[in-house]
Structures are given as structure tokens and as C-alpha cells.
Amino acid sequence: MAPNMLTIIGFIFTIGPFIWLFAAYGTQFTNIVEIPLWFFWVEFVTYFIARMLDEMDGKQARRIGCCSSLGLILDHGCDGYAMGFSILTFVKLVQA
């Protein structure tokens, strides 16, 4: 599988729970709606998968010799946005 596809699939695993959480439980960061425990497990599993795919894409690119500047920019760009989405998801889950 191409390393850029691993990056994009990992990014989808990051923004999926973010969109689901904010669409289902609103955009306010207060204790208006209690988020069920199973959603914490969904976030845990999707975060783990996203991290594993993010770690594998660079190794795969080096192994098959298709490293490029564009791939590096895509990887770091997705990582930056994924970190922002992950922080917002965490804050919404703990409703701080």
C-alpha cells in the first residue's frame, strides 16, 4: 500500500470520531449532554489505529524507496490537523 494512502486513512480515523462527536452531542464544551462510555472506547480504538498508521507510513516509504518532499508535507500537514482534531475531541469528551 502506498505510504500516502496510510497517511490519509489514518487521518480519516482521526476526523471520523471528531465529526461524529460534534454532530451527535453539539459543539458546546459544557456538561449539557452526557457522552456515553462506549464513545470513549471508540475514540481509544480509532486513535490507536490512526497512530499506528501514521507511524507505519514513513517506514513504508523508506522501505520501498518512494520518499518525497510532497509526501513529507502531506504527512506533516495531516499530523498537524490530526493533533488539533484530537485535542478538540479530548476536550469535548472530558467537557472541560
Any idea what the radius of gyration is?
15 Å
Termini gap: 39 Å
Quaternary assembly = single chain
- Which structural class is indicated by helix and strand composition? mainly alpha
Strand percentage: under 5%
Structure description:
- This protein is mainly alpha-helical and 96 residues long.
- The protein has 3 helices and no strands.
- It is elongated.
Give the SSE layout.
Layout: H1 3-25, H2 37-64, H3 69-94
Helix pairs in contact: 1-2, 1-3, 2-3
Summarize the structure.
This protein is mostly helical. The protein has helices at residues 3-25, 37-64, 69-94.
Which tags fit this structure?
single chain; 96 residues; mainly alpha; 0% strand
